[in-house]
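Example S7 (structure tokens).
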């Protein structure tokens, strides 16, 4: 018995590891069980932690705070690092469509909470805690507590209300997503993996019939038109070739052009005539289009290539090949001359087999070299993320400085390093499996600690007279705005369901619900949408909760 007491009861580093591992393991196992066709995934770790905490099992307070903070930082930074390379591309193409419903969700939830506070006679400090718990936003709770303390009001009830409604905030978003999928989502709303991001690229063939471009070189045409496109192949008199930038166009040339969807109409006017062939089907065998040229994907694995512009390699002129598109972190990018290459990019190369072989040696294409973990960028990024998270921002009219905190700073820095790190020749690439492991480890650790912390007071608070009312109000604040905005985005904005789940989870600052979405929906759409809206919505929630208290108290 003394042996078991030492392992499970007596506070130590060893006991903390065992307890948190036990909670995580049980939560993962139970999360795989489906009830009425719904499984809650890693969110069950949180509730296992609550039960364990309720029955009196605890770990050292400092160890608990450390593990909880480290888990959250590891999760959000790894998430930012993963979606960073495609973040700004997604922001340009889908950013506004994602941010508008996300901000609407934030405002609807806040106004609903204020209205119910007056309707049900709940004090504004208590409702602030309910709102923070229902939206699982602990940074907003911290800002609310600081504001209440500066106003000379006890902040203890706000923290208690947050602890009570937080679990239902987690479950409410997951339940709303599951019910929406079961009752309202059609098969056409569930796009394939990364289907939305594949729409960034459109392939078309044009016949040159516009007399204005006869005799012009491709480089002259590109400079004069100011449109983004890559000519992958050229057919002239029955012969196919890779056109160089100084190749002159002639009447009846047939060009295979890789561009973006919104450029197609303009290019049709420039070249003269678009052929009817559909080059965007998924089952095209590019190597059977002609006998002279082949198409092959080459992986960038040489560190010397990381951070270099595509044009600086002069691959087309020196080797007679063409790079039509670049696949990066679930997003297809147009291979423009100013595109900065990153380790892990997959380049679609068109040319003769011998030339592609030589280009392969330049780019690397050594898959094994990418399997070695690169932890320097992870640790440096987390340090920078924490430093950014604790920079105070002054907002006009608010005396309390606003901070991005543990969650906001690391995800913001992760996105920036994932996007711009290669320009500084930082190797930020991690394999998909390694990134998923970091994210899962961080999220599981965070949930186990959060549940263990809430367990001691959870059931006691429910038994208080106002406890039931707080639970009902919190569930309404969680579910109603999520369902309303989710259905609006699905039916009126015509977003795919994967992106909708991501924006809902990001707007509600709910990484646990994101974990559920990633487990049940194929592709990176939920994660990309989450990272797109999370920094903006989290920052707005921190500001708005302070404004509400300052204006209404």
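Recovered sequence:
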């Amino acid at each position: 018995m003394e042996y078991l007491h030492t392992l499970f009861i007596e506070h130590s580093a060893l006991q903390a590891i065992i307890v948190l591992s036990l909670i995580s393991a049980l939560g993962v196992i139970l999360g795989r069980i489906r009830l009425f066709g719904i499984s809650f995934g890693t969110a069950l770790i949180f509730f296992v932690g609550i039960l364990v905490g309720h029955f009196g099992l605890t770990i050292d307070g400092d160890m608990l705070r450390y593990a909880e903070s480290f888990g959250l930082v590891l999760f959000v930074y790894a998430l930012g690092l993963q979606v960073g390379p495609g973040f700004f591309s997604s922001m340009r193409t889908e950013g506004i469509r994602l941010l508008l419903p996300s901000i609407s969700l934030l405002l609807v939830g806040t106004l609903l909470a204020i209205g119910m506070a007056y309707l049900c006679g709940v004090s504004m400090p208590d409702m602030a805690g309910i709102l923070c718990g229902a939206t699982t936003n602990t940074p907003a709770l911290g800002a609310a507590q600081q504001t209440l303390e500066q106003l000379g009001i006890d902040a203890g009830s706000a923290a208690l209300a947050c602890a009570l409604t937080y679990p239902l905030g987690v479950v409410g978003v997951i339940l709303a997503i599951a019910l929406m999928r079961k009752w309202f989502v059609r098969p056409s709303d569930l796009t394939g993996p990364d289907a939305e991001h594949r729409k960034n690229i459109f392939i078309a063939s044009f016949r040159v019939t516009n007399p204005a471009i006869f005799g012009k070189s491709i480089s002259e045409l590109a400079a004069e038109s100011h449109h983004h496109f890559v000519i992958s192949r050229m057919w002239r008199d029955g012969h196919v070739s890779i056109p160089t930038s100084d190749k002159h166009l002639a009447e009846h040339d047939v060009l295979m052009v890789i561009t973006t969807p919104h450029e197609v109409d303009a290019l049709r006017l420039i070249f003269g005539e678009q052929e009817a062939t559909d080059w965007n089907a998924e089952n095209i065998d590019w190597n059977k289009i002609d006998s002279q040229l082949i198409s092959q994907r080459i992986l960038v694995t040489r560190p010397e290539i990381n951070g270099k512009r595509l044009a600086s390699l002069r691959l087309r002129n020196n080797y007679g090949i063409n790079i039509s598109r670049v696949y990066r972190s679930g997003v297809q990018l147009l291979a423009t001359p100013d595109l900065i290459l990153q380790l892990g990019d997959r380049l679609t190369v068109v040319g003769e087999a011998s030339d592609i072989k030589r280009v392969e040696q330049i780019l690397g294409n050594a898959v094994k070299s990418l399997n070695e973990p690169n932890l320097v960028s992870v640790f440096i990024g987390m340090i920078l993320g924490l430093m950014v998270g604790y920079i105070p921002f002054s907002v006009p009219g608010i005396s309390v400085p606003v901070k991005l905190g543990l969650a906001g700073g690391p995800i913001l820095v992760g996105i920036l390093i994932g996007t711009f790190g290669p320009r500084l020749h930082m190797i930020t690439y991690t394999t998909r499996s390694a990134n998923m492991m970091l994210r899962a480890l961080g999220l599981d650790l965070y949930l186990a600690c959060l549940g263990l912390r809430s367990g001691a007071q959870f059931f006691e608070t429910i038994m208080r007279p106002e406890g039931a009312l707080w639970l009902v109000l919190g569930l309404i604040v969680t579910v109603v705005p999520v369902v309303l905005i989710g259905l609006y985005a699905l039916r009126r904005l015509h977003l795919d369901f994967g992106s909708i789940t991501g924006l809902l989870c990001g707007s509600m600052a709910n990484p646990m619900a994101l974990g559920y979405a990633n487990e049940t929906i194929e592709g990176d759409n939920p994660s990309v949408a989450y990272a797109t809206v999370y920094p903006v919505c989290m920052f707005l929630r921190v500001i708005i909760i302070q404004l509400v208290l300052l204006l209404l108290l």
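Notes on this example. The chain has two domains: 2-191+373-552, 195-369.
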